[in-house]
Each structure stands twice: as C-alpha cells, then as structure tokens.
Design goal:
Layout: H1 2-27, H2 42-45, H3 48-58, H4 68-78, H5 81-86, H6 88-97, H7 113-127, H8 133-136, H9 138-168, H10 174-187, H11 199-211, H12 219-223, H13 226-235, E1 241-244, H14 280-284, E2 290-293, H15 307-325, H16 348-354, H17 360-364, E3 370-372, E4 385-387, H18 400-404, H19 415-418, E5 425-428, H20 434-437, H21 444-448, E6 456-464, E7 470-478, H22 488-492, E8 501-504, H23 520-530
Antiparallel strand pairs: 1-2, 3-4, 5-8, 6-7
Helix pairs in contact: 1-6, 3-7, 7-13, 7-15, 9-10, 9-11
Amino acid sequence: MRHLTIQIIRRLVQGLFLLFFLFLFVQTESKGSDELGYPVRLFLDFDPLILFTTLLSAHAVAKTFLLSLILVVFTLVLGRVLCGWICPLGTLNNMIGSLIKPRIEQKPRNWHRIKYLLLIGLLASSLFTLQPVGILDPLSLLIRSFSISVYPLFNHAVRSSFDAAYSVNPAGIALVTEPVYTVLKKSVLSFNQPVYRQGVLIGILFLTVLGLNLVEKRFWCKYLCPLGALLGLLSRFSLLKRSVSEACTECGACAGVCQGGASPDVKGEWKDAECYYCWNCDDICPNNAVSFGFSGKKITPAMDLGRRRVVASALSGIAAVPLLRITPLGLANAKDPALLRPPGSLDEKEFLARCVKCGECMKVCITNGLQPTLTEAGMEGIWSPVLVPRIGYCEYRCTLCGQVCPTGAIKKLSLPEKAKVKIGLAMIDKGRCLPWAHATPCIMCEEVCPTPKKAVWLEETAVRDRSGRMVKVQQPRVDLELCIGCGICETKCPVLGRPAISVSSVGESRSKENQLLLSERNMHERNSTTG
C-alpha cells in the first residue's frame, strides 16, 4: 500500500509540473497587449546551470536567475528531487521509457561519467566567454524543441484535422467539431500557424533524445544531461540520506526499479549522485532494509571520473572557443548583412555570451519573424534568434521578446525606448522596384512604414514607359536617419522572390562598427586607429 502511495504521489507531482510547464509554454504568446501576464520563463529562471555558465561567460546575470539558488538549496537538502519529481523533460523520458518492458538480462551501463565530463567541458568553455550550455541544458532544449518543432506540428495537425472535418462534414459532424475548434483556438492553439526554418532538424534531435529511452529508460537523464550532472554533484552533500540495514540480502529487486541506475542492490557500489530520490527502492524492498531520513551519517562513495578524462574534457571545452570563433564573420566587412537581431539585443559578442538558444523569443514573436539561425552567426550562434523580414517583421509596438529572454541577451525595453532602437536599415534595389525599374505605380513600402515621420518617403517623378508615354510615378527613397530596420517594408513588398526593398543589419544601434554613416566621433576613432 505504501509503495503505491509514494508512487502515485510522485507521478501526480510529475504530472502537475508537466502540466504547469505546458501552461506557461502556451501562455508565451501575445494575448492582445504588450504584457504577457504570466512568468512564462519561470522554469528557466530556476535553472542553476544557466546561472553558473552565464555568470562565467558574461560575468553578469539577470536578477530573476537568483531564483535558481532556491533549487540549489533544495538539492543540498533533499538531493536530486528536480530529476525525479519536477523536470518536465525527465517526466517525458519516464513516460516514453514506461512504454517498453525492461530487459532483465541487460547489464547496466556504466556511462554516468559522460554527463560529468560534458559539464566540465561546458563550464571550461563558459570560463572563456563561450555559452554553449543552451544546446544541451534540458529545460532550454525542451522549450526550443517545443517552440520550433513540436508546437508548430501540433498546430498544423489540429487545424488540418478540423478543416477536413468541416469540409467533408460526414453525418453533420461539423456541428460538434466547430465548437471544440473554437475552444482550442482560444486556449492552446496559436493565433497564426507558426513556421520555422530549423523545425525539422530540431525536431529530429528532440525525437532522438526521447528515442534513447528505447535503448535504456531515462538514457538522457542518466548519461547525457549536464544539469543532472551539476545537481548530482550538489546532491552528494544533501541532508536527506539513504541507508541500508543489515537485513539487505542483495536480492536485486531495487535495481529493477531504480530510475537513475545508481546500483542500489550492491553494497559498496551505491552511486549517491545518481539517485533521483524517487523512493522506489524503499518501497519495493521485501525486507524493509532501505530507508530515507535526515539522521545518521551520510556515506558518500568516491566519484572516479579519471584525472585524464577530466583534463581532456576541460581542454576540449577551452579548445572549442577559438575553434568556433575563427571565422570570417568576425571581420567587419564579412558580417552577414542578414543577421538582424531582435531590438534590445546586446552587442554581438555580449549577446552570444548570454543567449542560451531557448527559443522563448521566437515563440512569443507575434509575426513569426524571429527564426533560429544556422550558420549566419557562425557555429557559436547556432539556433540564436534572427529576424527574417520575408517571413515576418518586427512589430513597432511590441516588446515581448525582451520580456521573455531569461539571461538579458535581449534587454527589456519600454515602447518609447524601442522606437529609438535601430536593428538595421532598409535599402532599395532599383533594378527590381516597380516605380524605379518598370514605370509601374507602387507605394506599398511607404504606406506600411510605422515610424511617426515616414522613414520611406516618395518622390513624384515623370518617367517614360516602353511606348514612350510620360507616366508619373512615386519613387520610394529611404531616410537613413529615421529608418529603424523593422522590416515591414520587406515583408509587404509585392515583388516576389527577392524583394525590391530589403533590410541589412548595417546601422544597428547595438554596434559602433557596423555603421553605414560614420559619426564624427567614429571617424575620429577610426582615423586615430589607422594613423
């Protein structure tokens, strides 16, 4: 009875935290105002791994990340309760792993050290200002995978199913499906169908993480999770202790239910850092030899990672820094002009030192314009956000991306502050522009320009068409001082394919070097440098 009670409570807690995660995830979307209303990034704010790596790489952290110290304290008291009771990715791995029957004859793998070596490499690279942790951090990985792959797929599947039911309408089923569809649109579906360029790749990687459970239950959690490694190191000092009495006969019953593969059935081989404190071993023991409590002395076995492996992991993390940064993109004239960062983004070096590629800013972008990069920012910046105006523009009166960024890579701006921020400049391709190249009237870019004083202005000119007739057209021009690079002109340009007006990152406020028009101060600094 007690076994069932503890197991039911743990599964109930896991389910509630997963539902809470999904609720916050769905709420990461504009509800019609410029305020979200919920702490949608709460799970990331409690992530101590992001706290430590950001502190090492950027030497500063957002104040809300201090909440992660609460999890550190909980781990020092109760052990790895996050892994066994709270982590939504761990819960999903547990659910997938429960679909297969454990193979009794399979010997446990002794690969636990892999995640600790990964952690050492990540911390070493962070010490030298590289921030790769977001690629492997479980919470960042889960949010990114859901935002860019799972949620768009879910939206498409639901919308297509209900559209098909409405079109075919067998036996008048639309009378039932349409009210349900209306409720879904108001609750879990996005306002528009989201689309992302890296959705397939990120989805495959996420399915791989889940698919590893078919090899061994909670494979990711046991052998690869760097956050689990950090919490494992902390849990070695936890006040909650597992003790085994002399009544233990090493029958092996506990080994079959141990989620962390902590070798609970063999005396002297207990891996304290791998215990998720799920209490399964206590519940299933036929002799009641296992117990958990705060009294007595805690026996913490030595953790043998191997000195050479530790040194090699640290050196690998350090070597990754120049390896990822030796790229032509570091030169001023070689920067990718299409690398448009969200408004409020820090200077590129500082931005990459903080961004954990969680995808929150992309999820909350109301026009779907923020997309994950692939190589535009080099391998160091893979999956960081970039504005792609041909997909969606930066809404003039929206500051949501700065509100959800957990590390401060994108500053939270007020609307008046954002109105002054340039993320780039629009430039006209006269060879493709209808009024310039084809004597055809078009004023779309000027009409949609959102700045109070239009950054795109029109000059009425008389031109000859092919028959020799004089035709009056209004040819657009861009005021480089007023343009903020929001990209709506590029989004709405009626010229298909490559638009007649496009936004380049040159002129962005966050950089003193990436400028088209040099100020007197910049000219003086450049002259003094070259002189």
